[in-house]
Design a protein that fits this description.
By secondary structure, the protein is of the alpha/beta class. 21% of the residues lie in helices and 26% in strands. The strands form two sheets. The protein has a seven-stranded mixed sheet with strand order 6-5-4-3-2-1-14. It is globular.
Length: 250
């Protein structure tokens, strides 16, 4: 089995809590480089941590909130105008993503959605519970519970015998058991420590259910002010935590 590197180019929420960048996870399989989510600060994260945007092969989006997909218009326009990208770029996301991306492109860079790019670009939309083959990577989306947006998904990504699961933004729902089943690493939102808020995960609920997944490691991300304040009390936190720039290997 080969090693996979997972680097957080953004581990924060939508509002810059704790000075963290928005959701963006680089997954390096050895044959492909994936971004799992691409928040509006994605290019800042790449520049800060020495990642060449031209090295990204595929972007996988969990749901259509700006802190998870808002960086794509900047990456596409930067690739066309500044980075001189030539290699193809794939973008995969939930139903409705292509329409939303066109709107975002034209809102941020008027007229840009209709311009031909110098590089091949393929945009596709996934379906719940249906596995997608993309090179050496298999991606399976599982519907989670984030009712603030119509189509929101947890993701299960496998490559070379290794599995990464990603809850994205959600309160606990049993579909996460399928997404994270026996995964090598489960990256999960912990927006609050114990406060229950519709559509978002709290640490206590996550920990009480984590053992059911069979996953080997748990890494917290997308932490809000309440949860970040608890990190100083490490005796209360029984798992690993993401930080901007931090890498994990599986």
């Amino acid at each position: 089995m080969k090693n996979i590197e997972i680097q957080f180019l953004g581990s924060g929420d939508a509002f810059g809590s704790g000075g963290r960048l928005q959701s963006c996870i680089l997954v390096k399989t050895g044959k492909q480089n994936l971004l799992v989510d691409c928040g509006a600060s994605a290019l800042t994260g790449m520049a800060g941590f020495g990642v060449d945007p031209n090295d990204i092969d595929l972007i996988v989006i969990s749901h259509l909130h700006g802190d998870h997909y808002g960086g794509i218009p900047f990456l596409i326009n930067g690739s066309q105008l500044m980075f001189k990208r030539e290699r193809p770029l794939g973008i995969i996301g939930p139903p409705g993503m292509e329409k939303m991306l066109v709107r975002a492109m034209d809102a941020l860079f008027p007229g840009s959605s209709g311009r031909e790019t110098r590089f091949a670009m393929k945009i596709s939309e996934f379906e719940a519970d249906r596995e997608i083959d993309s090179g050496d990577v298999k991606i399976t989306p599982f519907r989670n519970y984030h009712p603030q947006v119509d189509n929101s998904f947890a993701l299960r990504i496998t490559s070379g015998g290794k599995t990464m699961a990603y809850s994205s933004d959600t309160e606990w729902t049993d579909s996460l058991l399928s997404a994270a089943r026996d995964a090598d690493i489960f990256i999960a939102e912990a927006y609050f420590y114990e406060k229950k808020v519709k559509g978002h995960m709290d640490y206590k609920s996550l920990i009480s259910n984590f053992g059911k997944t069979g996953a080997r490691r748990l890494v917290l991300t997308h932490m809000g002010p309440d949860m970040l304040s608890m990190l100083a009390q490490l005796d209360k936190i029984s798992c690993e935590c993401a930080d901007d720039g931090k890498s994990f290997f599986i």
